[in-house]
Amino acid sequence: MSVKQKKLILALAIVFAVNIFIIALAQSAAADLYKKGSTGDVVAEVQRRLKNWGYYFGVVDGVYGSKTEEAVRYFQRRNGLSADGQVGNKTLAALGIDPVSGTADRGQSGDKYLLARLISAEARGEPYIGQVAVGAVVLNRVEHPSFPNTISAVIYQPGAFSCLDDGQFDQPISESAYRAAQEAIDGSDPSAGAIYYFNPATATSAWIWSRPLIVQIGNHRFCS
Predict the structure, then answer these.
(1) Residue range 133-147: average pLDDT?
(2) What span, in angstroms and rounded, lies between the C-alpha atoms of 71 and 60?
(3) Cα separation of 22 and 39, whole Å?
């Protein structure tokens, strides 16, 4: 066998190996797709996170049924993903679940994620202390008898936050918002107990101006 023939055989072998590798990757990606009929621990974690964040109201049983599919579609629409009702790599990542191993990243809590998303949408241009204060307002509402008693319910309460209606809630989350969310969860409250805040330059409600001012941080007035 000539040297030229050996090189040709080697080249063909390399091409064959590359093709096999690509096929294996495609099969691996397909294996990470969870949809109606899927079962297991990852499905249960998907349900658990969607339930914690106010998207899913069924039983966390690890069975991907119609209610789970509907909740996934809702989450996908809210987070700028293709709303196909199936949990692929992008949706897994958005849920805080490792899309490579399929295991849940339990370091990212549902409450922290939701709170960070709200802070980023409402206060990404504000001083860091103002971002913490916005997070604290949400937590103050959770403890207040006039508001729902969970972070997700407070955030998704109809008309509570304009960012859920104008598309800002679906934008990428800033790194500082994650830190601010954690600080607020840990008990920091620069708002001094406020349950409302607003930007005087953009507020259109006369009622909000009637709320007693506690403190102003950046562009936001924090009120009781």
Answers:
(1) 95
(2) 12
(3) 27
**Of the candidates 211, 221, 204, 95, which has an alpha carbon nearest to the alpha carbon of residue 159?**
204
DSSP assignment of 34-96, as one string?
B-TT-BSHHHHHHHHHHHHTTS--S--SSB--HHHHHHHHHHHHHTTS--SS-B-HHHHHHTT
Q: Do the Cβ atoms of 136 and 196 come closer than 8 Å?
A: no
Cα Rg of the chain, angstroms: 23
Predicted pLDDT at 27: 45
Question: What CA–CA distances, in Å, run from 209 to 194, 203, 224?
Answer: 14, 9, 11
How far apart CA 122 and CA 23 sit, in angstroms, is: 44
β-sheet bridge partners, residue 142:
none
CA distance 172 to 79: 9
More confident residue, 23 or 45: 45
Q: Cα–Cα distance between 70 and 49 in angstroms, integer?
A: 14
3-state secondary structure of 26: helix
pLDDT level of residue 109 (50, 70, 90 thresholds): low
Q: Buried (b) or exposed (e) across 20-46, using 16+ Cβ within 10 A? A: eeeeeeeeeeeebebeeebeeebbbbb
Residue with tokens 């991907």: 64
208 vs 221: CA distance, rounded Å: 10
Higher pLDDT, 140 or 15: 140
Structure tokens at 69: 């599919």
